[in-house]
Design goal:
Largest sheet of chain A: 5 strands, antiparallel
CATH superfamily of chain B: Response regulator
Number of helices of chain B: 5
Distance between the termini of chain B: 14 Å
Mean pLDDT of chain A: 80
Low-confidence stretches of chain B: none
CATH class of the largest domain in chain A: Alpha Beta
Oligomer: heterodimer
Largest sheet of chain B: 5 strands, parallel
Distance between the termini of chain A: 14 Å
CATH topology of the largest domain in chain A: Nucleotidyltransferase, domain 5
Strand order of the largest sheet of chain A: 2-1-5-4-3
Helix content of chain A: 40-55%
Strand content of chain A: 15-25%
Largest interface: A-B, 45 and 36 residues
Number of helices of chain A: 21
């Protein structure tokens, strides 16, 4: 792959040459014809008569002369063209490298003296610019140093912090995480590849935590900010990999004072409460059942004893029956106590961290959600002002919305009234609707069923939600009013929160990229987004040979991530792979991976799913990537994995940027762009070099007007190397 | 007129005592061992008062109470919930679904009899 020209550039260049030759030929021919005609007009009389037959015979000769002339002109003009026009085009490309990518790059001083002089002058200019640039860079570096110092202090502070902390932008992309968070989601595994791809800068937090509770909490925070609450914090429970996580969310607010509710991001403080909660819940249940069983047993004993005392004239047989009951119940109680002490703490369950919330806020949120999620109208009564409740507001809203949606769907109920019925330590949240069928059994039948939530994402039962609040729920009908009311009790908060603030401190400094705050919505279409804003997984493989179709296999696959134009070396994937076939010695000479090194390594079927997780939601980048992609494609059937994300090839992009240069290999690119080559022919080393080349190609592409991913894909396709297939 | 009392409880031992008590106090007594049995008896027996346990197999006490309240023909039936479920939330629920009185176990037999008489005389 040494000589490369894009087809369109080659075509343009050849066309120019042909036009130049044509013009010169036409001019020379015209002069010759004109001279001939003038001479002919001067020849008179006999000479003319004598020459006519000779000229008639030699028309073939004239054509041969003309052909010679054309060939000579083509050679002559071609040489001049290559020397001057081609030379200047190469100079232009070299100059662009100096301007956009590598200020240390210099043009070769070669060709005709004019071109050589031009090259020399450009080099001198570059020299001057470079020295000016390094002065500016020095100042920038000094300024950056103080910013870095601030960041380091923040980082040091965070590494002291044992709670897991994630900082995200408004779209949920992770900007920062600390070591505790990494351990929580990576299981603390040191091997970079194992659970890589779960937690990472620029990845969506929704990949690790449920989306809906987060969105719900964000809504609540916005609402509170709008109403002037100075430091609102929202708290909810989420599940991640089967664990129960208590999440506290604090907003990161925008600078715009006119829009107090504008949130540019949020800070999540996470606490794994699975164990605590299960233990607490189990004890709670045990205690509850013990109380109930004891009550029932004591009731029987007490009733029997009191009856015997109260009715002395009782016949002996009856009296004996009561004595037997007393003995039976006493034995049963003893056995129950024995069993309870044996299985103390063994019951499994779900418990729930609740958040203190104003009852009216809950009502308002529910009202909005009913309209939004269930598509029904809801009016809220304004009782219960000033009351605080301890709720899992997300679960409550989902449950009520699901119920309303089902009533709407199956019984055509369109209007609901929401109200609070305060009473002691619990307040009833009531939803009333008019119904000709004042039948409470409809809802009773649904109580234990998992209702699909109105937004279609999750499932939960009304009973389950009530149990989370250690409360009851029921339905009652008012036949005179022709209405049915569903009521769920919610515990009243005794200590109302004032200003609890989540401390936005967290982990190791390396894991941040605050520029993500400014990124657009992650869900917008990949293709039309600027290249500079996308997240990339740059990868490379080493293989047993060059022919995947003939059974060659991957022996090593590595990747690094690029985010916001920065290569993130610490977020890497690096895995040796057992190819399950002999390793040809030629390939060992290239990559240095021996059969011994591959012993006990996972096979590609185990590795690819992890790689896919690492690469998800990113654009794949590689050098001559068609080769690597072919290996991945051939594993599709075996692994069930398809890599459908967009793919960019630095080989093609180099050809797009430098249509007149011939060298587009990895090394040539690296040298041209001033990138040191370390670890060539290890997959991780090559992935890193490819990544650095890609980062440097971005401004060169932009100079060519290639700004979005789509632009880059279209331009890549045009280059003829795109047709190479393995 | 002899008042009719239906006892609904899955604990036979408490049923024995309750039946005896109510009979001694001059009531016409029937017993059911679970919610379904109780519902089947309601139509035929037409009790004036139901002593209703909550935790029972095959329809719990809440459901029985709801059905009684949903049935116009049983409009005058008094319901006394007699249960080991004694949490505030459970009491609220019992009263909300239609109980006239909610008594937690263990209870005083004397007070129970008085309560039943009071409710039937009212």
């Amino acid at each position: 792959m040494s000589e490369t020209h894009t087809p369109s550039a080659t075509f343009r260049s050849n066309l120019k040459l042909a036009v130049a030759v044509g013009i010169v030929f036409v001019i020379v021919a015209a002069i010759a014809i004109a001279a001939g005609l003038v001479l002919w007009s001067r020849v008179q009389g006999e000479l003319r008569t004598a020459l006519t037959p000779i000229l008639d015979d030699s028309s073939g000769l004239v054509l041969v002369f003309a052909a010679f002339l054309l060939v000579a002109l083509t050679l002559l003009v071609g040489a001049a063209f290559r020397a001057y026009v081609g030379g200047i085009a190469r100079l232009a490309e070299g100059a662009r490298v100096i301007i956009e990518a590598n200020p240390a790059h210099r043009l070769p001083v070669e060709g005709p003296s004019e071109t050589a002089t031009l090259a020399k002058l450009v080099n001198e200019l570059a020299e001057r610019q470079q020295s000016a640039l390094s002065k500016v860079e020095l100042r920038v570096r000094e300024a950056n140093a103080s910013v870095e110092e601030e960041r380091r202090r923040l980082a040091a502070l965070m590494s002291e912090f044992t709670d897991s902390v994630l900082v995200c932008n408004a779209e949920g992309l992770i900007l920062l995480y600390n070591d505790a968070a990494r351990v929580m989601f990576d299981g603390g595994g040191a091997g970079g590849a194992h659970d890589a791809g779960i937690l990472g800068l620029g990845r969506s937090v929704f990949g690790i935590l449920d989306r809906d509770p987060i969105a719900h909490a964000l809504d609540l925070l916005r609402d509170r900010l709008r109403r002037g609450e100075p430091r609102p914090v929202s708290q909810f429970a989420a599940t991640a990999r089967g664990r129960l996580i208590r999440v506290r969310m604090a907003p990161v607010r925008g600078a715009d004072e006119a829009a107090p509710e504008a949130i540019t991001g949020f800070v999540l403080t996470l606490d794994d409460v699975t164990g605590a909660v299960q233990g607490g819940e189990a004890r709670d249940r045990l205690l509850q059942s013990l109380i109930e069983d004891t009550r029932a047993g004591l009731a029987s004993i007490r009733a029997a004893v009191e009856t015997m005392i109260g009715y002395e004239a009782m016949e002996p047989a009856r009296r004996d029956q009561f004595i037997a009951i007393i003995r039976d119940e006493a034995v049963r109680l003893s056995e129950r106590l024995q069993a309870a002490s044996a299985d103390r703490g063994s019951a499994p369950v779900s418990p729930w961290p609740l958040e203190a919330m104003k009852a009216q806020d809950l009502l308002r949120t529910l009202q909005r959600s009913l309209q939004r999620l269930a598509g029904v109208t809801a009016t809220a009564e304004t009782n219960g002002e000033g009351q605080w409740l301890n709720v899992d507001s997300f679960a409550v809203v989902q449950a009520f919305s699901a119920l309303a949606a089902r009533l709407n769907r199956e019984h055509d109920v369109r209007e609901f009234t929401l109200a609070l019925s305060p009473g002691g330590r619990f307040t009833g949240l009531e939803m009333t609707w008019r119904s000709p069928r004042t039948d409470t059994t409809i809802v009773a039948a649904w109580e234990q069923e998992d209702l699909p939530t109105a937004d279609g994402h999750g499932r939960l039962s009304l009973r389950e939600v009530a149990e989370r609040h250690a409360a009851e729920q029921w339905c009652r009908a008012d036949r005179r009013a022709g209405s049915v009311t569903y009521c769920m009790q919610l515990p009243v908060a005794t200590d109302t929160p004032t200003t609890r603030v989540a401390v936005p401190l967290a982990a190791r400094p390396v894991f941040y990229d605050f520029e993500l705050f400014d990124r657009p919505d992650a869900s917008s279409v990949f293709e039309n987004r600027p290249l500079s804003e996308l997240a990339y997984t740059v990868f490379d493989t080493e293989t047993t040979g060059l022919n995947p179709s003939a059974g060659d296999e991957i022996v090593s696959i590595s990747a690094v991530r690029i985010l916001n134009g920065r290569l993130l070396r610490h977020e890497s994937f690096d895995q040796l792979v057992d190819p399950r076939r002999p390793l040809p010695s030629e390939s060992v000479r290239i990559h240095g991976i021996t059969a011994a090194m591959l012993e006990g390594q996972p096979t590609i079927v185990d590795v690819l799913p992890r790689f896919a997780r690492f690469a998800e939601n990113t654009v794949l980048v590689g050098h001559n990537v068609a080769f690597d992609m072919r290996f991945l494609e051939l594993k599709e059937r075996e692994t069930g994995l398809r890599f459908v994300q967009p793919v960019l090839d630095t080989l093609l992009l180099s050809a797009v940027v430098h249509p007149n240069l011939r060298e587009h290999e990895l090394e040539a690119n690296a040298i041209r762009l001033g990138i040191p080559i370390i670890g060539r022919h290890t997959s991780l080393g090559d992935a890193i070099v490819t990544g650095e080349i890609f980062v440097k190609l971005l401004p060169l592409l932009a100079a060519e007007g290639i700004v979005t991913l789509k632009d880059a894909l279209v331009a890549s396709q045009r280059t003829y190397l795109a047709r190479v297939s393995y | 007129m002899t008042h009719k009392v239906l006892i609904v409880d899955d604990e036979p031992n408490i049923v024995v005592a309750l039946e005896y008590l109510m009979r001694q106090n001059g009531f016409d007594v029937r017993a059911a061992r679970n919610g379904e049995e109780a519902l089947a008896l309601l139509d035929e027996f037409r009790p004036d008062l139901v002593l209703l346990d909550v935790m029972m197999p095959r329809k719990d006490g809440y459901q029985v109470a709801q059905t009684i309240r949903d049935t116009p023909a049983l409009a005058g039936t008094r319901i006394v919930m007699l249960t080991a479920k004694g949490r505030e939330t459970e009491i609220s629920k019992g009263l909300a679904v239609g109980a006239d009185a909610y008594i937690t176990k263990p209870f005083s037999t004397l007070e129970l009899v008085e309560q039943v008489k009071r409710m039937l005389d009212a």
